[in-house]
Amino acid sequence: MSNSLHLEGSPAENRVVVAMSGGVDSSVVAALLKSQGYDVVGITLQLYDHGEAVGRRGTCCAGRDIHDARRVAETIGIPHYVLDYERRFSEAVIGAFADSYLSGETPVPCVACNQKIKFRDLLETAKDLGAACLATGHYVRSRPTEGGFALYRAHDQERDQSYFLFNTTPEQLSFLRFPLGDLPKDETRRLAREYGLPVADKTDSQDICFVPTGRYTDVIERLRPGAAEPGDIVHVDGSVLGRHRGIINYTIGQRRGLGIAASEPLYVVRLDSDSREVVVGPREWLLARRITLRDVNWLGGEPLETLIEGRDILARVRSSGVVQPAS
């Protein structure tokens, strides 16, 4: 291997497609790889009808972001393409997001987008363009191993995004590169200014990209009419405390905005989509000694069952949570 991306040959001999969202992270990736001599091609995905979001700050992949990605590409002198994946995104991500909320879950659409759009469809497009790899602005690390590449948390633990990439397959991981995995965010900002990128001071995306108003319930109600059907707010002791505005407006652990009077702080402890009940109880009802996992994706070379025997297991139950012992 003779280059920073663990590819055969010199940088000039390797085409790299960069997934450019229009934000500072992916823009720095494109500029950094260009400065290292790679044959860089930028691609931005148009994932939804962004009419409402063109001028909104704090989103990802909105109309303004496509414009920003194009400006960055012009600044550093690389070709840039916008691909319309709106229909695919609507079916694979937005529809599943709405259905998940209707079943009482709190989905993370970025995981589905990575799994079904960016790391599948976009990855195949990169291969069609003759790229040796697809680079993204995620804060995560991958390292070559005997059987391919392994996934590791980012150097900057506060920026670590490995949580959102848990469903990446070994085949995808071998084609993906994450140049920012060893950098703190401050260094990324510094590089953006050093390269003279027009997005150097752009704020980080915070909202779900297809929820430009910040109200995800609006999207769900539009896609699934009747989704906000009211029901009872029920205490864990079985008593009815009031009425709610539809279970899509609530999430496990929520305390504020319940609209009920009680002698003690109450939290949402369960959402029952069949009975349309929001079940509330004291804080201790949120505690659990056991969690059942689904959609487990094991990236190790050996069978999972043979490795966990007698080993300490660590877990993180939310993207911003602390890694804790779980065995």
Automatic annotation (TrEMBL):
EC number per UniProt: 2.8.1.13
Active site: C113 (nucleophile), C209 (cysteine persulfide intermediate)
Record's subcellular location: Cytoplasm
Catalytic activity: S-sulfanyl-L-cysteinyl-[protein] + uridine(34) in tRNA + AH2 + ATP = 2-thiouridine(34) in tRNA + L-cysteinyl-[protein] + A + AMP + diphosphate + H(+)
Residue numbers marked as site, Interaction with tRNA: H138
Residues bound to ATP: A19, M20, S21, G22, G23, V24, D25, S26, L45, G137
Region spans: Interaction with tRNA: 159-161
Enzyme class: transferase
Superkingdom field: Bacteria
Signal peptide (from-to): none
GO cellular component, one term: cytoplasm
Keyword annotations of the record: ATP-binding, Cytoplasm, Disulfide bond, Nucleotide-binding, RNA-binding, Transferase, tRNA processing, tRNA-binding
Function, in words: Catalyzes the 2-thiolation of uridine at the wobble position (U34) of tRNA, leading to the formation of s(2)U34.
Matches recorded under NCBIfam families: PRK00143.1, trmU
Family membership: Belongs to the MnmA/TRMU family.
Protein's UniProt name: tRNA-specific 2-thiouridylase MnmA
